[in-house]
Amino acid sequence: MTRSPSPTAFLVPIITTLLWTACVPARQYEEMDARYQAMQAEAQAADARAREAVTRADELGSQLEELQRRDRRLEQDTATLGTSLRRMQKQYDKINQLNEELLEKYNQLLAGDRSENRKLLTDLEATRLRLLNKEDSLDALATDLADREAKLAELRAELEKKDEAMRSLKDRISAALTGFEGKGITVEQRQGRIHVSMENKLLFPSGSTVVDAQGKQALKDLAKAIEGEADLRIMVEGHTDTDKVLPGSPYKDNWDLSVMRATSVVRILQDNGRIDPVRITAAGRGEFLPLDPGDKARNRRIEIILSPDLTQLYELVTD
User: Fold this and answer.
1) pTM given for the model
2) 214 and 313, same structural domain?
3) Distances (CA, A) of 263 to 191, 259, 295
4) Is 84 contained in some domain?
5) Which residues in 211-242 are b (16+ Cβ under 10 Å) and which e?
6) Residue 198 dihedral angles phi and psi, to the nearest 5°
7) Residue range 41-80, pLDDT digits in tens
8) Which three-class secondary structure string do you get for 185-237?
């Protein structure tokens, strides 16, 4: 869908004409130009914040992947330690059998030649010391295995608790947005996170960053559904199609437009829910993450990504 030229595109030539033909005071033109420059500066600042937000989102995704890799590594190490423990147990049984045999020989040879007895006693003592070393190694291995199994069980329990909480939250969000089914909203759970996608036809007029009444109601319902989640991280991403921003627009490019739309959504969520500003981020993806390269309408959207706080799990794995 082609965007309509923004009001600013018509404003500049009209002002110029009025200055020449109607002798509008230069001061009024300077004020208009100053406001336009301020809008440009705001868009650039929002663009910078969005790029930082995208970097933070990527870092959170990397932390989640690192936790999953460490979980798999712990599971592999546990399996390896279990195999080693069983092997050591067999060796321990053999050593016990050998010890019994040596004790029997010792008792039989006590009455024999003293020099031969001394040699046998020396061998027996050496065997006994080796047996003690094997027992110490076995105990250490068993302790290490038990610690790893306990840590793995704790990590899995915490991950399952997080997943269950996110599944419950997804159900609540879906129920809260039931009235908007078929109007461009989808709610999905992917890789431990919840993705709420809202097409622009529900939120914004073409080329605008102002959310209309229907979109505001959907965002209000969403804010109420998530406001009680104190450990939730919220990323609001703006996405555009590939159509270029028209000359004279207050937005430099699609990056700026996507950031400003994301910021508008963030303000509505904060104004209508008790959401800690530290937990919410506005970001712009521009035209570079399309859902369907052949469908511009689907690509113009807001993605609200809800992620659990994994700080405690990360500390558990790195201890």
Assistant:
1) 0.58
2) yes
3) 25, 6, 24
4) yes
5) beeebbbbbbbbbebbbebeebbbbbbbbbbe
6) -125, 120
7) 887 887 788 788 778 777 877 887 777 788 788 888 888 8
8) EEEEEECCEEEEEEEHHHHCCCCCCCCCHHHHHHHHHHHHHHCCCCCEEEEEE
